[in-house]
Amino acid sequence: MTHIHDTDTLHETHGESTERPCIMEFNDFCFAYDKEPVLRHITLSIHQGDSVVLMGDNGSGKSTLLKAMCGLIHPQQGSYLFNGASVDEQSMDYQCFSKRLHARIGFIFQDSDSQLFCPSVEDEIAFGPRQMQLSEDEINQRINDTLSLLGIEALRNRAPWTLSGGEKKRVAIACVLSMNPDVYCFDEPLAGLDAKTQEWLLGFLKQLKASGKTLIIATHDQSLADELADYFVYMGEYHGYDHLPHTHINL
Q1: Residue 100 and residue 59: Cα distance in Å, rounded?
Q2: Contact 157, 121 (CB under 8 A)
């Protein structure tokens, strides 16, 4: 398995060879809830700029793997490295480290209500940049730019709980976009959205991919997967990385 270093590493995963650094590396990663295994012996490398679709049945561990990538759960066996740095309970206890990780990896939950908690859309978008201790001028600029980019200026002063499902999804994405992360993790991004919002979101995801962002998407939607995936990662019924053939469809 290729190890992560600060310098570029040769991209050899899934038969490809390009000069892009490995940004995420799982090595024999295991995690259980109340002694019930959810992730078993995950060994996986993801490189900068990859667009990866996680496939598998409900309960196979896709959402938990996304949480592990974002440092929301920690290895109980094995390791997870982001840009060569170990992400575990000890490292995440350091506020500087955890803030930097959460600034570089954005997580858009399947249920937008799980992500929104501030009294207004403006406050939601400002929350992350304020945690980064940016200046108020920079925060206001990011709010304005994000509202404009996603076409939700009219929602600025609205309370998130008053929004439609599609509007909540855009606001949840705006909260992550305002941090300008390197990696975007989406959990079932099209779930519960109307056709118009699904079309918009697919176009937005394509824009992120074209801009060179790393995308990790858990989905059951085959059409979305076929549009975006450089390759698939299959999660098997025993909560492990399933070594099925990896078909590159968009490289």
Answers
A1: 30
A2: yes
* CB hemisphere CA count around 205 (13 angstroms): 28
Q: What are the backbone dihedrals phi and psi of residue 183, each rounded to the nearest 5 degrees, phi first?
A: -125, 135
CB environment 207-229: b (16+ within 10 A), e (fewer): ebbeeebbbbbbbebeebbebbb
CA atoms of 161 and 116, how far apart (whole Å) = 8
Domains, in order of start, for the chain: 10-242 (3.40.50.300)
Residues in the chain: 251
The token pair that represents 134 in the structure block: 């940016």
Rg of the chain taking only CA atoms, in angstroms: 18
**Do the Cβ atoms of 104 and 185 come closer than 8 Å?**
no
pLDDT tens-place string over residues 171-224: 999 999 999 999 999 999 988 888 888 899 999 999 999 999 999 999 988 888
Please list, residue by residue across 116-126, b when 16 or more beta carbons sit within 10 angstroms of its beta carbon and e when fewer do. beeeebbbbbb
**The sheet that has 241-242: what strands, in order across it?**
105-108, 183-187, 214-218, 51-55, 231-235, 241-242
pLDDT per residue as tens digits for the range 46-72: 999 999 999 888 888 899 999 999 999
* Structural contact between residues 91 and 85, judged by C-beta atoms closer than 8 angstroms: yes
Q: What predicted TM-score, i.e. pTM, was given to this entire model?
A: 0.83
